[in-house]
């Protein structure tokens, strides 16, 4: 028999076992169904020797289930999203699902194409960090029968389950920390205007100013997206006008923004915190390894992959009477050495 024609039935006949037994072993369910270790090993070795390959497309059409989950992130080069993808893939594997990964590049057209592509491959559900400006295509996908879970960015008043963090409280705490250290002229480097995380983070910044009777200056909120280049150009602008604006601190709303900012500061010889203080949203593995360890807001780190997969699996269960509840995780300010205490002057 040619290798590409090897079937479950052929393997079962060769070993004198049932097709069901072979199927369970090759789907990783041997131990769950108490199949002996010897039988499991024999089936796996035989399937490998015969170069058996499962026809997942045909199987998916037959069962109306592909055992695959689509994952869409805005930027896989961002270490936060890379870690997220890793966690979700690990959790999906535990439940015998594979991941199709798409990168939207924070581009709405690409995001829509990714949704359509994943649906054409008949994924069982989609986990997505959406751009966050439009929801119509996501609602349409959900209504067509594709379960979705949104991460980080969500839409007010739209009935799509999401997991996010308390961005408002995290930003409020970060800005208050700067104020407690004597800073009043605080620039805010923002991300994509109109998205839920950016709105919440900027609002938290503004609320801290208001709580301390510090006038809000719209000119101090600059930036257009969560990218590296945005942070770099914003920092160059701040450095150029530093003497005139008298800015003493920056609150950055994202880790990629912060990376661009740090590059600009290094090029221009601006020292943190001696010349300017900095607090950044998004804790990173390198935050405490920098020449000046960085104070950050940590968020969405509590078993995020597990939460996302369970929320999606809940939607797969047609008998589930309880719809998945939206999850808002706490944020946490991690204090290091990037903020100068001006009260000690």
Keywords:
six-stranded parallel β-sheet, 14% strand, alpha/beta, 345 residues, Rossmann fold, 3 domains, 12 strands, six-stranded mixed β-sheet, 434 Repressor (Amino-terminal Domain)
Please provide a written account of the structure.
- This protein has helices spanning 8-15, 19-26, 37-49, 56-63, 79-94, 108-120, 136-143, 167-180, 196-211, 228-240, 242-245, 255-268, 304-316, and strands at residues 68-73, 98-103, 125-128, 148-151, 162-165, 186-189, 221-222, 249-252, 277-281, 295-298, 327-329, 332-334.
- Helix 5 (79-94) packs across helix 13 (304-316).
- The protein has 13 helices and 12 strands.
- Helix content is 43%, strand content 14%.
- The strands form 2 sheets. Strands 2-1-3-4-5-11 form a 6-stranded parallel beta sheet, with helices on both faces. Strands 7-6-8-9-10-12 form a 6-stranded mixed beta sheet, with helices on both faces.
Helices, strands, pairings?
Elements: H1 8-15, H2 19-26, H3 37-49, H4 56-63, E1 68-73, H5 79-94, E2 98-103, H6 108-120, E3 125-128, H7 136-143, E4 148-151, E5 162-165, H8 167-180, E6 186-189, H9 196-211, E7 221-222, H10 228-240, H11 242-245, E8 249-252, H12 255-268, E9 277-281, E10 295-298, H13 304-316, E11 327-329, E12 332-334
Parallel strand pairs: 1-2, 1-3, 3-4, 4-5, 5-11, 6-7, 6-8, 8-9, 9-10
Antiparallel strand pairs: 10-12
Helix pairs in contact: 1-2, 5-13, 8-9, 10-12
Q: Assign the CATH class of the largest domain.
A: Alpha Beta
Lateral arrangement of strands in the main beta sheet? 2-1-3-4-5-11
Share of helical residues: 40-55%
* Fold-level CATH name of the largest domain: Rossmann fold
CATH architecture type of the largest domain:
3-Layer(aba) Sandwich
Number of domains: 3
Categorize the overall geometry. elongated
Distance between the termini: 84 Å
Rg value:
25 Å
- Round the mean pLDDT to the nearest integer and report it: 90
- Poorly predicted runs of 5 or more residues: none
CATH H-level superfamily of the largest domain: Response regulator
Q: Strand portion, in percent?
A: 5-15%
Got a strand count?
12
- Major sheet, described briefly? 6 strands, parallel
Oligomeric status: single chain
> With helices defined by DSSP (H or I, 4 residues minimum), what is the helix count?
13
Helix and strand pattern: HHHHEHEHEHEEHEHEHHEHEEHEE
* Protein structure class: alpha/beta
